Amino acid sequence: MPTLSIIIVAKNEAINIADCVRCARFADEVIVLDSGSSDGTPALARAEGARVVVTDWPGYGPQNNRGIDFATGDWFFSLDADERITPELAAEIRAAIERADVDGFRVPRSSMYCGRFIRHGGWTPDYTWRLARRGKGRFTEHYLHAHLEVQGATGTLRHPIVHYSFRSMESVLEKLNRYSTASARDMTTAGRKGSLGRAVAHGLWAFLRTYVLRLGFLDGRWGFMLAVSNAEGTYYRYVKLWLLQREPQAPAET
Hints:
about 250 residues; alpha/beta; 7-stranded mixed beta sheet; 7 helices; globular
């Protein structure tokens, strides 16, 4: 029977890590890559049976690739600390890795925003590549928005990952700042150009795409708040990109 490794990247995830590891214990091994937590995350993960590797943080893509290199299973599944695998998805994963004709799978994801699971606005179904035969899949090297690339035949699983992405408005604001900074870094590396005008235009487009084109208005007040958050995150991403690319200002003469 093929073996499965589940890889979890984490830092300061004491609120999430125990439940995350528990939901992954159907696998043959659970590996947690901790990048310098100060809240006891490694100890909590070990207490639940995970193998913990303490390391630095080179970015989301490189960190997941480290996990793939540490893994010993025939297959691996990448799981974030704020995500959960349901029993139904676990059974589907076990059945999927027995297939000889497929090398990787994408998985739908159901995500929370301020205490409510969002059904529209591009969040459902939110397909993400997570499961691959070892040797057939690697993550891109992006610092933030890395994704799994699979070499070979692919398929789609039916049951979703449950994603506790934004439990409160405080977490929305914290991640908005952190993610926009990291995304601006990725765009700089990719040679993208920023400007204040682009920041405004992309922010407006993000709102319209989320709220109107992707039917976010059907989620009511939460759909509107999500559309505003997406617009803000996009605006700040491009503003930060622009500021990163500006020439240093010479000091004023006295």
